[in-house]
Amino acid sequence: MPADPTARQALRRQLRKARRALSQQEQSNAAHSLLAVLRRRPEIRRARRVAVYLPQDGEIDPGPLAAWLAARGCLVCLPVIDPIARGSQRLRFAPWHPHTPWQTNRYGIDEPVTARSLRPWTLELVFLPLVGFDAQGNRLGMGGGFYDRTFDHRRPRAHRPRLIGLAHGLQQVDALPRAAHDVPLDAIATDQSFLAVAPNPMRGTF
User: Fold this and answer.
1) Band of pLDDT at residue 73, cut at 50, 70 and 90
2) Torsion angle of the four alpha carbons 152, 155, 160, 165, in this order, in degrees rounded to the nearest 10
3) Residue pLDDT, tens place only, 138-152
4) Which of 10, 80, 106, 177 could crosslink 3 through cysteines, CB 3.0-4.6 Å?
5) What is the CATH number of the domain that holds 30?
6) Number of domains in the chain
């Protein structure tokens, strides 16, 4: 389905409102249910370098997942706006630790303060937030395009991390308008299920 910017914006507002309406207890329950879904996956149990995100605007919280991964000896990273290529609108990933200091970036999002950052293609798994998704693996993000530019499937790379979108189950829709720049996902996980996305020539190779 081709993307209609007006339709995408309307759907984005609707789904953001729905996830913000969840209570604190519902959010906490969803975060732990998400961990229960993911900890059974062998590719996640094997991972040693992963990225998560700090939830905002009602996004499902990967915090319990991050703590479980770190306890298993996994290096857990968080996205930072690329400090090397300023103005690039792309991401690097900084190691997260319990006592990591924070700073707020120009978009009002907290980032780790660190001199060390990893290039995206050095990671094994990247868990990224979604606003909406459908059963075919099409995704709707916040509209900033940072993950799309960082993991642009049109740019050749010898290695790409597996990209797993995270969302509340209520963010699934029947069919989602697709934009050409949308980065393809390998899977989508919610507090209810894990959806592996079938390989598709439209999605590039991961």
Assistant:
1) very high
2) 10
3) 889 887 778 888 887
4) 177
5) 3.40.50.10420
6) 1
